[in-house]
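We store chain and fold; example below:
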Amino acid sequence: MNDAKSRDLAYRVRRHALDMTSRGGTAHIGSIFSMADIIAVLYADVMHHDPKAPKMPERDRLVLSKGHAGAGIYAVLAECGYFPTEELLTHCQNGSRLSGHVSHKGVPGVEVSTGSLGQGLPMAMGMAMAAKMNGQAHSVFCIIGDGECDEGAIWESALIANQFKLDNLIVTIDFNKIQSITSVENTIRLEPLDQKWASFGWHVIRIDGHDHAALHAAYAEALGARGQGKPIAIVADTVKGKGVSFMENDVLWHYRTARGEEYVAAVEELEAQKP
């Protein structure tokens, strides 16, 4: 598949998110950058969605369980035409509907508000179960963070999804190896993460989460696995802060805001990578 569209969208998501967080004084740019390629591929080429009819019953659903990276979702929705891109600069300003953690309130294209870690996957699992019960053909996509995998609700949902054969549920783990104030390895070791999900009865795919060809192939495999009675987990190995060298793999950029010389340097690096 030609991935030019998704690569351009990923660049635009990163560029918008940098401006949004810098202007609003908000954090989590590292978390947004690590998942930018994932959401770009989903919205550009994988999910069935329509900005002119954001509530159409047959749409695919996406739940961003790692809701602190909500600026990325707002950016991709605006670029897809759900609302004007100019509104992105109101992010976290007084009176704005674009809050720091992603909110569905008044924002077309956002299915649910998230931010309390571990709660997005249970909601996505419930949506998938409801779709099965109602005979609906759409898929439910969920993006979770690696730090969320410390939460019991994640693994309870994984058990239930397998129990009810929710092969319409596709979960992507943004495995950037850094959570909050230190590494995942130093918090609660997750590896071998793909084997853990497989042991819960899931169809598991592991890829480089910044390789657009690999992402396209993974989602094609996931959609092709419908009918096999297994939920799908895509373990996407990513880099925190991907796209800006001084942010990459640096725990500071979970909470730090790029301003002044750092903002200028980040813009220059992103512009140099423009497709």
Summary: Residues 4-24 form the longest helix (21 residues).
